[in-house]
Amino acid sequence: MSNDKECTVDMEVCHLKKYYKAGRHDLLKAVDDVSFQIYKGETFGLVGESGCGKTTCGKTCLGILEKTDGKVLYQGKDVHSMTKKERFAFTKNVQMIFQDPYASLNPHQKVYDIIAEGIQIHKLAKNREEEQKMVTDLLEMVGLNAEHATRNVHEFSGGQRQRIGIARALSVNPEFLFCDEPISALDVSIQAQIVNLLMKLQKEKNLTMLFIAHDLSVVKHISDRIGVMYLGKMVELTESGKLYSDPKHPYTKALLSAVPIADPDASAKKEHIMLKGDVPSPVNPPEGCRFAGRCDKCMEICRKVTPEMREVEDGHFVACHLYNKEDD
Asked: What's the gap between Cα 114 and its chain centre?
């Protein structure tokens, strides 16, 4: 996070857990004791392999999913115990951009109606004329134009639909955007355009963003700080540049080693870490570190004791016994 940004906590996540019943006696631990903070005006990236729990974590933070345990505070208020009035204000201040623009927008609805819905619900326009101007301005803000408002969603490409989704999210002047893998369903040629648009809007409107993705190169490009999740646990958290220049956790190192490099010479010299074994089941996961069975640095303690997140350098947190001096 850059020094010129105000370090006010927008969202605080404390020991968050989200479990699902899996059979009569088993629990699927999708999110298991995760803690982090998101500062006002920053983009916080959450990364990990598919199934690691990052989207479930994000949706639980927003109250879309009920928590099993822990606490989520947004600007000091508990997300999971808000009054009806507080929840209404929260839904205006916190908006979501979905992963699949084909599933998240009604294909037979007019673009105007989709974008204007939030304006109408929150009574943000004085009259129809002001509402029309707001919709036009929003379309232009995301790279579309006024004539698109009268067309049905099914007439648009995936990239254009995602722009409509972004305009819908911005229609209520939110302060916080939750972006749930917003480019993973798009063509590679379009992905950079959407990421650049989000970065531009975030800077112009001083938005706080929680950006979830599995593509580490994208997350590096857009995020101020990054949290890495593995099988429901946060294993590393630090500034974007530091994570890429000096990763600590063996899992983070393995993920980064798989990121392609455009330079063939640099790619040839780069160490590629091949992970052994399979990801354990999130249903009653193994004792100790959940990465232990795939880690080439695994010690005896790793299979018995769950490592705690500790600050090993200024602003750099990691959950790994390699960095726990008490274990020596």
From this structure: 24
What would you measure as the largest C-alpha separation in the chain, in angstroms?
70
Full pLDDT tens readout for the chain, 328 residues: 444 445 799 999 999 999 999 888 889 999 999 999 999 999 999 999 888 999 999 999 999 999 999 999 999 999 999 999 999 999 999 999 998 888 889 888 999 999 999 999 999 999 999 999 999 999 999 999 999 999 999 999 999 999 999 999 999 999 999 999 999 888 888 999 999 999 999 999 999 999 999 888 889 889 999 999 999 999 999 999 999 999 999 999 998 987 666 555 555 556 667 677 778 888 988 899 999 999 989 999 999 999 999 999 999 999 999 997 654 4
Here the tokens at position 226 are 């990054």
SS3 157: coil
Per-residue exposure over 210-220, b if at least 16 CB sit within 10 Å of its own CB, e if not: bbbbbebebbb
Q: Answer yes or no: pTM beyond 0.70.
A: yes
How does DSSP classify residue 152?
Answer: B
Rg (CA), the chain: 21
> Residues with Cβ < 8 Å from 8, sequence gap 6 or more?
39, 40
